């Protein structure tokens, strides 16, 4: 009983933070430390574009002091009706408690004309920017600003945590770049077009996908032409997100002599990445560089 009472008490006074996905939640915990209570709506193994809204989501959003969303239409299919149901002015679209993660991000793949009839769910540019660690530094700053507005008396703490996180990224980046350096220009295949920022940061080419268009499942004719291109260009590594059906990726791998690498953008999406954002990037850099080294 005493422990329960203590737990209830320690939750009081914390900023109540809801993040749409586990990557934003992980960075929010880095910045907020024990001053915040953070919940992610999506499981790390779910496709961020298509989340099954649970009955508790509206109540969670109703109680939130801060909401962190990726923006750029990442949550286009599911967040808006939940926000309407939550009726929480603290996190309405323009409130300081509503963090649009992509503020200040140099967006890639912004189309010059929008045509949703083609089924393209990246109609506002590619929303998977957070997997570039340099973008994680920008998002962390956006989050620190929102926390400071929500609870100004802890401003110094958020600023110190932000600085520590950014310095950790900078230190690890030197190692990550070193590990990836031998693979400059290497080509990989991915299931979904969620890797352009990672590819640009580490000098990779990730331009062929199992999906014919973002959000459209693989078709037999598209897969056949992909297999042909992979054979011609000797592409031997396929990145497979935790939320996709592995069967098609395995079939393409067996036809092309490629290896599949389980990947995720979300801490906890693959085993051994539960420790947070930096551990996730460690895992990606390790597993992708190993796969490329073995595929040569
Ligand atoms: Zn996407």
Gyration radius, to the nearest Å?
20 Å
Percent strand? 5-15%
Low-pLDDT windows of residues = 5-10
Query: What compounds are bound to the protein?
Result: zinc ion
Q: In terms of structural class, how would the helical and strand content be classed?
A: alpha/beta
What is the count of helical runs?
Answer: 10
Q: Helix and strand string, N-terminal first? A: HEHEHEHEHHEHEHEHEH
**Largest sheet at a glance?**
4 strands, parallel
Termini gap: 60 Å
Mean pLDDT: 93
Which shape, going by the Cα principal axes? globular
Strand order of the largest sheet: 2-1-3-4
Helix content: 40-55%
- Give a count of the beta strands, DSSP E runs of length 2 or more: 8
Would you kindly provide a written description of the structure presented here, covering whatever features stand out?
The chain has 296 residues and is an alpha/beta fold. It is 44% helix and 12% strand. It contains ten helices and eight strands. Strands 2-1-3-4 form a four-stranded parallel β-sheet, sandwiched between helices. It has a four-stranded parallel β-sheet with strand order 6-5-7-8, with helices on both faces. Helix 9 links the parallel strand 7 and strand 8. Helix 2 crosses helix 5. It is globular. The protein starts with a helix and ends with a helix. About 2% of the residues have low confidence. Zinc ion binds next to loops. The site of zinc ion has 7 residues, from loops.
